[in-house]
Amino acid sequence: MDLSVELAPHNRHGLLLANPVMTASGTFGYGTETGNIKGIQRLGAIVCKGTTLHPREGNAQPRLVETASGLLNSIGLQNIGVDALVKEKAPVWAGWKVPVIVNIAGETVKEYGEIARRLEGVRGIAAIEVNISCPNIAAGGLEFGTDPELALRVTSTVRMATRLPVIIKLSPNVTDMVPIARAVVDSGADALTVMNTIRGMAIDVNSGRPVLGNTFGGLSGPAIKPVALHWVYRVSTAVTVPVIACGGIVTGADAVEFIMAGASAVQVGTASFANPDAALEVLDGLEAILKSKGITRLADIIGIARE
Question: Is residue 134 annotated as a catalytic residue, yes or no?
Answer without folding.
Answer: yes
